[in-house]
Design goal:
Layout lengths: L22 H5 L6 E4 L6 H9 L3 E4 L3 H4 L7 H21 L2 H4 L3 H24 L15
Parallel strand pairs: 1-2
């Protein structure tokens, strides 16, 4: 997602898959200045992928991977709430349907539908010349 909290790319996977291998795919083709990731993204391959696109990685260390003490970069601490707001909005938009659908294909469809709805509302905010709406993830409701 970008600094305004708008989703740019998404990958929906089963709950038993780690987040780390998907970061290079998510940032490919984008031109961010910074990439923020939590400890789940702590891998040398992710840091290398960030460097390859010219972005500075801000990735928390995972003590289980490196044996080092946990360290969370200041930018992660300051901006993590944007991701949490988006996750909360997804749960609200999907409502009970998330619980009813069984199977990855049906859940993937639900998540992508929510992504499309959020992006459509963001485009509407731009077209109606109300850019202040883009500053708050919490306003995206349908």
């Amino acid at each position: 997602m970008d600094r305004l909290g708008l989703p740019r790319k998404a990958v929906v996977t089963p709950g038993n898959r780690y987040d780390s291998p998907f970061l290079p795919e998510l940032i490919r083709g984008l031109r961010p200045k910074d990439v923020i990731g939590d400890a789940a993204h702590d891998a040398e391959s992710n840091r290398k992928a960030c460097s390859e696109i010219g972005a500075k990685p801000h990735i928390a260390t995972n003590p289980r991977r490196s044996g080092k003490r946990r360290y969370t970069p200041p930018l992660c601490k300051r901006k993590r709430y944007i991701v949490e707001q988006l996750n909360s909005r997804f749960k609200e938009m999907l409502g009970e349907c998330w619980l009813r659908f069984k199977g990855l294909a049906k859940k993937t469809t639900s998540v992508y539908s929510a992504l499309l709805a959020m992006n459509a509302l963001a485009i509407q905010a731009l077209l109606t010349n109300r850019p202040e709406l883009l500053r708050k993830v919490g306003v995206y409701r349908y």
